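Let us work through a complete example step by step.
Step 1: write down the sequence.
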Amino acid sequence: MAKTTRYDTPIMLTKRQKQLLAEFGLSTDFEHLTDEQYFAIDERMSNEMMTRGINDSGDGLNDYGKLCESVIIALPDD
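Step 2: predict the structure and record it as tokens.
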């Protein structure tokens, strides 16, 4: 399902992104994601961002939330 590129460049995950995905047993191989893996990543990162990723003032993301958001953004478009 997922393409390996965004704007014809490979999708590269950072070490921190890979570590976060691995903590939850989620795939770090965005090159060969199934639909099930894609949606599992999107759902888990969204939930983490909403439950643990909001800053203390409640008006934005903390560092953890930004990390979760960056994983969601890295997901292939197609």
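Step 3: interpret the result. Confidence is low (pLDDT under 50) at residues 1-7.
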